[in-house]
Design brief:
Four copies of one chain form a homotetramer. By secondary structure, chain A is an alpha/beta fold. Chain A has nine helices and 15 strands. Chain A has a nine-stranded mixed sheet. A six-stranded parallel sheet of chain A has the order 3-2-1-4-5-6, sandwiched between helices. In chain A, strand 11 and strand 12 form a beta hairpin. At the A-B interface, strand 7, strand 8, strand 9, strand 10 and strand 11 of A face strand 7, strand 8, strand 9, strand 10 and strand 11 of B.
């Protein structure tokens, strides 16, 4: 049994508590939040869990094996650092930290302390993304040409971070997970139409070998769009997270190309169009699997699927995008 | 009656001939094409039209008042230049020329010769784009925040131009027509996955005052998408050219924002969501209106809606995008 | 303050309790359910509410002004009858009763006892249906030609009632509310593909003056469809309850027709196609308004919007449909 | 080489001429139409084809092996009868005739004369319908539970036939082709909202063994719908002819059912939900295959796929539907 404490019972914390409460390998002993009203909700729903507004109660409790940090991102680093130093395993909400430097320190510290450091890149635990990874790993897609994601809608302006820090962690983590490559350069352009935080941004990520990643994130769109296109040499995917079912469509479409001299004046390109398959997806709630992966990786003394290094890679893309946006789209080498 | 000659009877030429044939203010006297089989089709369908493979027959025919040039783009400049010098009006297929320099020369020459120089930016004559321009001009949208266009599908790789020269003229001309502003900078990233012409590209256009334009053009996508999002301070538009009807949807949605100090900790942003209207669109074939605009502007001795300067603006965006793409996304100041 | 008791805490009961709990004119004093586990849930969530498995506790409690009956339909009649006789107001889940005879008895009894008898036709309290009723009442639709509804999906076979009793009460109540006419005849055809309850049925309702109503209800369909078409002389509606927003679309389309002798050989019919409008809908939860209508109608001593007679009209359509289905589609006069 | 004459060059005739012109086993020798202007179009497009307004020119031309009849339906029977009597093969536009009696006479006459009698049920030659038939024949769907078709839109009121004679031949022919069973009873309800021809109708067809067919045909709908649902014991189909591609979707969904006594109170029904497949469809133009089937069946001296008996089955459903509609939905036994 792993004794767990949860920091932060705001937007995402209750989901964390609900899923760790249902995890038979975990026992939630503490929930910490600065807001007493939020703690009241914990007491009503989970009388067995102790509550506190003082992180020290948790840090100093040697019964606590692991902490889940779902506070605002600015508190991620100090809480995680202290918890690791106290010998506790750490699961961090995304984005992992506010800077690459902080993320690197946590990775290093976790290594030194031999503790699990995991980031909650929730989407990687959905049936849709897992199915897409299967298609990549099995070679069914072939080599990937591009990853193009649109995540836009009206609403939920954040007060502390811009649209990239708010929405792009989802797309960056999915892209990182599917492409499994190190990017070479990032550029981003955005605009602040209300206040001084970007509410729209376009991010381009260049990978070796002509592989392109691209994101459109936008808080000011007339309709909600959650669509990713992935082009491969053999097959292509449309992933539409707005669909209640039929989220992933696999198109057996492609192009073959002949470069021989003669063909230049004849038929250069041949199109292939076959079936479209919409596979059944595993319906388990993603956060249930996040919780399980955290406790399993602790028990089995192994790296979790979304470890600190994965979190660091995403923070690096976020930080670089924001550097580029401040320089009006300058290409940032990685 | 305006006597017209048409150069090029390939992909678009037959549509030009059909529409000028139906234009009661025009008479087609010549069609020129290097391919004799194509000319045979003209003779079968339009016995009254003379055909030739030699442009000189047209250039030297003083009966010809105006020429329509729907050849491959590389022939646009020499044919248009010669026709203008011979005192003929010119309608050019898009894109107008292969370089800004050529476009500038034609604009200058047409001015000197006092002849009509028009570019066939067909989309501007569709009911959908005309309706959107109305919404802009009436102030119904308010100020525009961004113009975001996706034009992707599988197929029709070109052998002579990349995906930007092939597809982006549509979006650039629509964006130029609706925004009515001069861009400040352009950047583009693309990739050549088959051969040495880019088959996917992302183009960002920065305008004064935080206005952003963005295009995704792609020959290698699993599905056909033709969607433009336009965000305004008062209303927003989704323009989906794939829809058989209901192409333009106007959302009465928006955000109002308070910057007062106190509000920072209370309610910064208020969302508004009202009706969505899908207006009836004028169904007249766009090319019919292109033909009419050409002959009307000649008869009335006025500038056409899509004059040489409009064509030049689009070529400038195309050229800059390609400069940027060759420098891996470097921002090009205009 | 109206003291309320709720019978049945199964599928719909918890929603009733939640909404009456939030209704400031009502106080829930009892919840009754035969299943002790269900009552445990009430105690945990609402410590102030008394629970019982014996309906007599409620019937004999003179503090109870009104009862809400959300039990299986077979218990509706005896519970409602006893409550009315004890001088209590009654809100019944749909369908009101299992037979027309029972419904008529309750209507009569409520009249004699001068108590409110209301049926929870929830859909009539949604923003979508209220908007459509507005369009009918304002004359915007013109005269109605037909009401066509499809309510199909895979799943949720019931063990006690067929697909008509399960799904058609929704469509019948909406149709009755919008058309505001008495039907003349009903016919229905169905089939039992699994077991001996119909899992698919088509119901046709004939109204005076060429007005047609039609339902397709189906438990065995590959996709979920919730679409109603309403044709009027002036405008037409597509109501798609599957849409997260944009549920009601109003088409300014129509046909005008000339019957003059000459026209027979010329132009008989003229089509009109104008804008489509998707109005903003009131987002209040329907069941909140059901609860409010029940307490308001009691306080104001007036008939509720969905009174016993409305419930009776729906039961009459259900009963007739089932008579017809047993006679393989015979037309049943009403 | 089969010498062919075509009667009727109105709406469908030009498509027939174009496809038979391209059929290398056929030679069109005559086109007959009462309207001289229409014949002018034939002469312009096909100088090698003779034209006439007098059917006798064709009937008496012993060079003519076969006739294609695409006139208004009232002329189908007399023309087909005379052509068969003159020893010519006959291809009839749908619907085959205006009465069952006429259809039966033609079938008998063709048998006596040993001539091919074929009906142009075009849809059966589309890639979509052929694919669905494959799925039925291979057993992939299992036994069929129901066939449900909606074919509605605004427009094209006919002056001579009601909406059933206009639209239902498509659905009846597809249903007949896929189900391969003889119906037991037909009922239909409709309404005449403009003039005295039904513009909306619902038709129910009862087959042995609980198999149901149902059609909704409507000239007065706000949107165009062309959707067929087919439920089978193993798989289910959504066929949406409005889709430019992805017309046929095969759902691996189903229900299994246990009738054992104990299960009644436990788990009666189990749902299964698997992949959805959207197969690539053969893109050949259907009418090209109609033309080929006609000449092949003549050359090979065999019955065509859509022979006179298939045409007769469709006319029987049309006639019965109209009998029922005149009796306000009375069930007509077949």
């Amino acid at each position: 049994m792993i004794n767990v404490a949860v920091f932060g019972y705001g937007y995402w914390g209750p989901n964390m508590v609900r899923n760790f409460y249902a995890n038979k390998d975990a026992k939630i002993v503490w929930v910490c939040d600065l807001n007493k009203n939020r703690l009241g909700l914990v007491q009503a729903g989970y009388p067995s869990i102790k509550t506190t507004s003082d992180p020290k109660d948790i840090m100093n409790d040697s019964q606590v094996d692991a902490v889940v940090i779902s506070t605002p991102v600015s508190a991620h680093f100090p809480l995680a650092q202290e918890a690791l130093e106290k010998g506790k395993h750490v699961l961090l909400e995304k984005p992992m930290t506010t800077t690459v430097e902080e993320a690197e320190k946590l990775v290093e510290l976790a290594g030194k302390k031999k503790k699990t450091l995991m980031v909650d890149h929730t989407f990687l635990y959905t049936g849709a993304v897992r199915k897409m990874r299967e298609l990549v790993d099995s070679g069914e897609l072939g080599d990937i040409y591009y990853f193009d994601s649109v995540r836009v809608n009206l609403g939920l302006f954040q007060h502390d971070v811009n649209v990239i820090w708010d929405l792009a962690p989802h797309d960056f983590s999915i892209m990182d997970y599917l492409l499994q490559k190190d990017p070479e350069a990032v550029s981003a352009v955005g605009a602040c139409h209300l206040g001084d935080l970007e509410n729209i941004a376009y991010v381009t990520v260049q990978y070796p070998g002509n592989l392109l990643g691209h994101l459109h994130v936008n808080w000011l769109a007339p309709v909600k769009v959650r669509t990713t296109l992935i082009g491969g040499t053999k097959k292509m995917i449309v992933y539409d997270d707005n669909q209640p079912s039929e989220k992933v469509k696999i198109y057996d479409k492609g192009v073959s190309y002949s470069q021989s001299k003669e063909d230049v004046y004849h038929m250069l390109v041949q199109y292939r169009s076959g079936d479209m398959l919409c596979p059944k997806l595993e319906p388990t709630e993603a956060l249930r699997l996040v919780s399980k992966e955290f406790t399993d990786s602790i028990s089995q003394n192994r790296k979790p699927l979304t470890d600190g290094v994965a979190g660091l890679r995403v923070v690096r893309l976020l930080e670089s995008s924001n550097q580029s946006i401040k320089q009006k789209g300058k290409v940032i080498k990685l």
